[in-house]
Amino acid sequence: MTINLKxxxxxxxxxxxxxxxxxxxxxxxxxxEVIIPGSKSVTNRAFxxxxxxxxxxxxSGYLKSDDTYWCMETLKKLGAxxxxxxxxxxxxxxxxxxxxxxxxxxxxxxxxxxRFLPGILGTQEKSEITITSTEQLAVRPHQTLHEALKxxxxxxxxxxxxxxxxxxxxxxxxxxxxxxxxxxxxSQFISGLLMAAPLFNRPTEIELTTNIVQSAYVDITIEMMNxxxxxVDVSEDYKHMKVEQGQYKPATLPLEADLSTxxxxxxxxxxxxxxxxxxHLNMESHQxxxxxxxxxxxxxxxxxxxxxxxxxxxxxQLKGDLTIDMNACSDxxxxxxxxxxxxxxxxxxxxxxxxxxxxxxxVSALTESLTQLGIEVIxxxxxxxxxxxxxxxxTLDTFDDHRVAMSLSLMGTxxxxxxxxxxxxxxxxxxxYFEMLKSLGISVEYNE
Length: 448
Ligand SMILES: O=C(O)C1=C[C@@H](OP(=O)(O)O)[C@@H](O)[C@H](O)C1
Ligand SMILES: C=C(OP(=O)(O)O)C(=O)O
Hints:
With 448 residues, this protein is α/β, with parallel strands linked by helices. It has helices at 40-51, 66-77, 111-121, 135-138, 143-151, 187-196, 216-227, 259-271, 292-298, 333-340, 362-372, 402-412, 433-439, and strands spanning 20-24, 31-35, 56-60, 81-85, 88-92, 102-106, 128-132, 155-158, 167-170, 177-181, 204-208, 232-234, 240-243, 252-254, 275-279, 302-305, 310-313, 322-325, 347-350, 376-380, 383-387, 394-396, 418-421, 443-447. The protein has a four-stranded mixed beta sheet, with helices on one face. Strands 2-15-17-16 form a four-stranded mixed beta sheet, covered by helices on one side. It has a four-stranded mixed beta sheet with strand order 4-5-3-14, with helices on one face. α1 (40-51) packs parallel to α2 and α5 runs parallel beside α6. The longest helix is centred in the middle third of the chain and has 13 residues, at 259-271. The mean pLDDT is 97. It binds shikimate-3-phosphate and phosphoenolpyruvate. Shikimate-3-phosphate binds next to α3 and α6.
């Protein structure tokens, strides 16, 4: 089968055909405002919950990117309808009796869809759905989730390699009950079980055998299940969760801006002795990357928080001599790792072993990139110690990873001669990223 070789590029991608780009350092501090696009995590949860609701949901503020495009296309193929009405998207949920008996869907490179969809498909007895993806996503961890689904009565069949995508999912007449699962590989496994739980034939209890990485993403799942009419009982330590059966109800919701994307703009100001005001944020959000505001403050930035905005002003010199545990907000480990190269002392980042299994092995990708730039890095099993030093020009691989590309772009705003290969990978979550940098006055040249 060759389906794994398909690319994640979608009609919502940008920079098609751009092989590399060159960034130029900022010569003067700036003071600007920016608005951030919708959250990938919130959009894909909303799409899936709306797609399995009994009516029409109306969502504003949704993200248009590769991850959300393929999620939408998948749900459409299964029978949901999506209609763009001015700045809202109206989603009418799938009528279970009309689900196709056999279907194949393509989910691109989206970890969210890969982990949220199998459980919910396992609640459907009459359909056998095959989930295909890019090669990158196919080889990320899935089996722990699939084994948990088997405990709950779902049929899971691998089409190529054991534990990898593509996978075929089918419900049975006896789904639900008790399940135990580890949470230390991916919080998305737990979110996926939770979202499926109300639709199983029996009430479901989930028991965690370990701590959860990035547990705040489970809070987002629980909050959004609530918004679509389902209540989850969860113990304080997340070890026990109980979900009653029920039907998702349609919701009318504004979706939150992406706080992970916001972090690159906060980091940009922090690094360049500049000021940025980021508007229309939910400063009470469960999105864990909000914690970066505090990390930047520890590194010397000045922070002003409003109820729906944050202002970050960078110091003349970023502070080092810090150890930062980023287990709870690990999508930003590469961002802080890049800033570390400019601090006044070494920075050690810990707690991020699981990001070796994200879009690429992010721990070794940052080691490789910083080493190429002449910076001293000691790689640990769960992070790095980065010692600032003289930085040299380089053409850097982006490892087909949006977060590598966005983090390393920060380097180019300080150091002359930074080029990034294959910048279109930012389309996974922020297709307009480089245009947004340009709108702040940063010089970005695209090379075909
Ligand atoms: O549930 C979510 O929306 C996410 C959970 C996290 O994944 P892991 O828990 O797999 O690390 C995070 O890295 C990802 O960007 C989004
Ligand atoms: C890990 C990430 O993505 P995914 O949703 O594919 O897991 C990420 O966006 O950093």
